[in-house]
Design a protein that fits this description.
The chain is of the alpha+beta class. 54% of the residues lie in helices and 18% in strands.
């Protein structure tokens, strides 16, 4: 829902901040006071085209900012995440129009494109009036509305799973065909490279193992001389360390008999003897394993050279060489067996087209059943709103695919064009006058009648419609009396499912407000300025009375306003 709207330096508005509430928000005011400016500013925030002519005289830019409560709005959350914008329970949208002609848009203080503002706005607000921001007049939304009304989520998910599978296979086939010519050209090169790598057949980490072995082989004489020398000094020479420590241990044993404090150091000496013994054994065993092998040394050097040559040519590392060999091996095999691969993939695609077509047909059948219910409910809602001779049709059609096209699915052996929504195209048709044929809803004239059509549709779709905010401008054009009262009650009912903002001049509608705002225009200094006030209970009664009797509010009009609003005299 829209929590607040701030407008600065826009047309006749200096600065206003409006705090909206849940339920039915009504805006009233004299003609020319600036009510339509509020709707224009809201349209601007939602991505409609802007001109720098809206910038208030004396200002450098106009700013419109809305704060929306989007808690649990998963569609908006997904769009934000896809565009790397942090999701928070409150969403701040801002649009700035500069005299210089620049147009800047922000979501949560992150600069964004105008198209993203529109995408997010389409998920938050449905604005009905003399604006383009009307979901029901965008034909592409009709199929989604029908699915929402009929609760087709499972059937749609089943179809979309098949759709994604088919799309993936078609993409794979396209990539395969694009590779075919390229791989034919590279086949000979790959063959040479495979032979060159396989002639060496390197193993993982082999270069590190060989480098370690080479270092040992190149220093074999030094290692042999050093280990023999260590063993000799520790164990074999006349002044061997081991023998000296044995004598010292014996002396410590004698001293321990005299003074027990020598016992600990005697134990340390025994540990030293054990350590010397371990060291001696290790170097003796190591020396025994050393072989002076010039042939192996040369073999290792040649192997390292061959591996380094492969690393230089194919990836810079041994892991890179092995990965490259695996890749070109797969592509070489593919080039060798292209015909078989394409045939196998085409057979899989044919099965996927059938599965996708079957799922689309199930969905289409359910849509047709739902459409009849929608048609009946809309006609009843329109009759309640005073359009008694209306005819409403949900037109569901399918288009067969061109025989030369690869973009089709199969149902009952027929080829159909398709999209992520199925093979149906859905459009709402309506006639509001007796004897006239229904025409596309998008072509119906604007004004009070189209607003009532929107209201009727929204009423039956209310429980399933995901848009949290509906804005109605001029919904009461051309209606009065009993019909105005019904329009008001319909709006009130709709406000149980959505936040509603409606501009009206009818007391029958204004009297039902949960929150009531009055727009006024006045002269401040040498400037005309519009401002808006949220009315308390007495202010609401007085404003409804003005709508009933004109500028002069009488006791009779106040009494009538209280009765209309269901408020007794206190």
């Amino acid at each position: 829902m829209l929590k607040s709207l701030q407008i600065r330096d826009y047309a006749l508005i200096d600065k206003i901040i409006i705090e909206f509430g849940k339920g039915l928000n009504i805006i009233t005011g004299e003609t020319g006071a600036g009510k339509s400016i509020l709707i224009d500013a809201m349209g601007l925030l939602l991505g409609e085209r802007a001109s720098n002519e809206v910038v208030r005289k004396g200002a450098s830019k106009s700013v419109v900012e809305g704060i929306f409560d989007i808690d649990e709005n998963l569609k908006v959350k997904k769009v934000l995440e896809e565009n790397d914008i942090d999701y928070m329970p409150e969403l701040i949208m801002r649009r700035e129009i500069s005299l210089k002609g620049s147009n800047r848009c922000f979501i949560n203080d992150t600069p964004v494109s105008l198209s993203l503002i529109k995408d997010v706005g389409n998920l938050l607000v449905d604005l009905h009036g003399q604006h383009e921001h009307q979901s029901l007049l965008r034909t592409e939304t009709h199929i989604e509305m029908l699915d929402d009304f009929g609760r087709h989520e499972k059937l749609l998910a089943e179809y979309q799973q098949n759709y994604s599978r088919l799309s993936s296979l078609l993409h794979e086939l396209k990539s395969l065909r694009e590779k075919e010519e390229l791989l034919k050209e590279k086949k000979e090169l790959y063959s040479f490279q495979i032979r060159e790598i396989d002639a060496v057949s390197p193993e993982g980490n082999e270069d590190e193992k060989l480098s370690h072995e080479l270092k040992i082989l190149e220093n074999a004489e030094k290692l042999l001389e050093a280990t023999n020398g260590i063993y000799h000094n520790l164990y074999e020479s006349e002044s061997a360390v081991y023998d000296a420590l044995v004598q010292i241990r014996h002396q410590l044993q004698e001293l321990s008999k005299i003074d027990p404090s020598f016992q600990d150091i005697e134990g340390e000496c025994q540990s030293a003897l054990t350590l010397i013994s371990d060291i001696s054994e290790f170097v003796r065993s190591y020396a025994g394993k050393i072989d002076l092998e010039p042939e192996r040394l040369e073999e290792v050097r040649e192997r390292i050279g061959a591996i380094n040559m492969l690393k230089k040519k194919y990836g810079g590392s041994l892991e890179g060489v092995i990965a490259y060999r695996s890749r070109i091996g797969e592509e070489f095999s593919l080039a060798e067996n292209f015909a078989e691969s394409i045939t196998s993939l085409q057979e899989e695609i044919a099965r996927a087209r059938e599965a996708c077509g079957a799922a689309a047909a199930k969905l289409s059948k359910k849509r047709t059943e739902t459409a009849r219910s929608v048609e009946s409910d809309v006609v009843k809602a329109l009759a309640y709103l005073g359009i008694t001779d209306a005819v409403f049709r949900v037109n569901i059609t399918q288009n067969t695919a061109d025989n030369n096209s690869d973009s089709f699915i199969v149902s009952n052996e027929k080829h159909y064009k398709y999209s992520r929504s199925g093979f149906d195209e859905v459009e709402f048709y309506i006639s509001t006058n007796l004897g006239e044929d229904p025409k596309p809803l998008a072509k119906v004239a604007s004004g009070g009648e189209i607003s009532r059509v929107m209201l009727a549709l929204k009423t039956i779709l209310a429980k399933n419609d995901q848009l949290p905010l509906l804005i109605f401008d001029e919904i009461d054009t051309g209606v009065s009396g009993r019909i105005a009262q019904k329009v008001g009650h319909t709006l009130k009912s709709l406000a149980g499912f959505h936040q509603i903002i409606s501009i009206t001049h009818l007391p029958q509608i204004a009297g039902l407000a949960d929150q009531h705002y009055a727009v006024e225009k006045g002269v401040y200094g040498d400037r005309v300025v519009s401002h808006i006030t949220r009315l308390d209970k007495d202010g609401r009664i007085r404003e409804v009375a003005k709508l009933m009797s004109g500028e002069e509010v009488t006791e009779a009009s106040l009494k009538g306003a209280r009765e209309l609003m269901g408020i007794g005299r206190e």
